[in-house]
Amino acid sequence: MKDTYINTSSGRIRVYTVNTVVAGTGAAGYNAADCLYDCGQHDIAIVTDYVRAGTSRNTGSDKQTYYKLTLSGSTPDSVREMAQTLFDGQCVDGDTALCEAALSVQGFMKLVQLGVPFPRNRWGEYVGYKTDHDPRTRATSVGPYTSKIMTECLERSVSAKKIPVLDKLLVIKILKDQDRCRGLLCLDLEHQEDPENRFVAVCCENVIYATGGPAGMYADSVYPASHFGASGLAFEAGAKGQNLTEWQFGLASLSPRWNVSGTYMQVLPRFISCERDGSGEHEFLEDFFCDDGTMLTNIFLKGYQWPFDVSKVAGGSSVIDILVYIETCKGRKVYLDFRENPGRKKEIDYSALSREAQDYLKKAGACFGTPYERLMHMNEPAVKFYKDRGIDLSSQALEIALCAQHNNGGIAVDCWWQTAVPHLFAVGEAAGTHGVYRPGGSALNAGQTGSARAASYIAARYTDTPQEDDSFREIVEQAVAEMAKIARSALADGGADVRELWNQAERRMSQCAGAVRIRREITEAVQKVKRQLDIFKEDASSLVHIERPGQLGWVYRLRDMLISQYVYLNAMADYVNEGGKSRGSALYSDPGGNLPSEKLPELFCFILDDRTRGDQIQEILYTEKGCEALWRQVREIPGEEDFFENIWRTFRENGNIY
């Protein structure tokens, strides 16, 4: 890596020149850098706004899952069968599904070698369990902190290889010419106060974008507060969005932000709501369910079926998500209470539960006591997690809401995880390789396999030393002038406080583009966001204001978030306009639809998708004039190429896999 300076009209700009820069220090970002090094490309660097931030390091659940090919037992499995499982999630490209299946064992075993303690039996089999949308037992886990431990092990490997990590650099612009990506422009968060030195550029041959999902878009979110995402900048640079309508929403605690899946539900807690001042406590599920047995069975199933699934609203456990949503829309707070048993009798008749729930709780030896006592018996670390953060579940209720949890869509990529912009790759949650449904834990596998694919392609094909030439200096000059103008405008009087604008934008997205979506509200939100982006471009001083330069990071994050919101909202509007119906984790309110229960408001009338769009992928392109949507056929799973001599010859002679 070379370190130089160039002079611009906005000040002196530090420039790092490197073959490949990785943006992000999550599990996917670290693995991209680590794989690049192992492939022989050592001229690399990582940039991040804060090394300790990000979803991989700061999120989890009661038993966070990693999904890979079966490595134990006598049940048959194969790469092609796993690829088919991923492909069957609807709106999934077959080539990326095949790659994620084929490299799953390589990625998994690398993590084992780096020290991630995935459990195995005495004979060395890596045992698994069945997760959601999984026909086998491919799932495994090291507990609540699976992705955190992965990230830490990969970080140690990167550190041992002395790969430079440039901390406190916030990406604010992807630099490109007409043909390809040329680098990044960053805000130096430690020099925001100095207009002569606040911007830093990276001149590179390749960018691997590992910035995670657009976590800052929603107010009701289980993403860690330290994670924002930067997908808007990729859309601005010309990368396409793919399957942006497809999210996962699920019940989560608000402070700390944590998924309340699995055991948190299987121990059968009470669901209570109250007024903002704590008065009027009410066990609201009793108003909907006619008997305790049905209510308790659905609470139990919510652990298995944790993400909100619109197909499970009518007669299924996802009606609980809707009931929680209704209470919060009333302005009431909703809590899980582990101190007392739910139901009208306060003593659980386990024989009234479904056979599945009965058998599970009996095998676990958990047919006794209070929810708290059952949780301590079945999963003590789940209790300890909250206690370590100041919440004692034995004496306190836990506030929850229906929250954005994961974006199955994202930036469109090919089978090497390269975007529509040459030399710009997207990996991890930033990449949109999932469809409507995905097996639990497949996102962690996709982050490892996708980053390995990108690294191997770069090491084989994109090895040139980048040139800090006149054309690059001109690109930097233009980008710095644009960002400096925004800084000057934000520091002038006139606009609203940046944090207030941020909060308004988050609330708007949760209201109209969360798990429950109304066509009219989506259209109105598109128009509002477009007006704000236009103001940003013309004169940001009439929109946003900050008191001091040290808040500039929030201004640039707001700009990125608004671009993301605009592209995602356009995707949802186009989906509805093209006749799309409710599917996955999204209920599109439709007066002409069916109401799953007469006890629900008319808002929840919807028509369930008939899966005929499962072979269609929606792509969105962001332009200065607006967003362009197009629909294409999924790329099928590639045909088998299994004659060894032919594969060996082409691989040996010219490395033809690239």
Model description:
With 658 residues, the protein is an alpha/beta fold. Among the domains are: 248-405, Flavocytochrome C3, Chain A, domain 1; 493-612 and 623-628, Methane Monooxygenase Hydroxylase, Chain G, domain 1 (Up-down Bundle), CATH 1.20.58.100. The chain is 36% helix and 18% strand. It contains 20 helices and 23 strands. The strands form 6 sheets. Strands 1, 2, 3, 6, 7, 8, 9 and 17 form an 8-stranded mixed β-sheet that branches. Strands 12-11-15-14-13 form a 5-stranded antiparallel β-sheet. A hairpin with a 2-residue loop joins strand 1 and strand 2 (11-23). The radius of gyration is 25 Å and the shape is globular. The mean pLDDT is 95.
Gyration radius, rounded: 25 Å
Mean pLDDT across every amino acid position: 95
What is the share of helical residues?
A: 25-40%
Per CATH, the class of the domain at 248-405 reads Alpha Beta
Strand content: 15-25%
- Specify the biggest β-sheet: 8 strands, mixed
At CATH's second level, what is the architecture of the domain at 248-405? Alpha-Beta Complex
Count of alpha and pi helical runs: 20
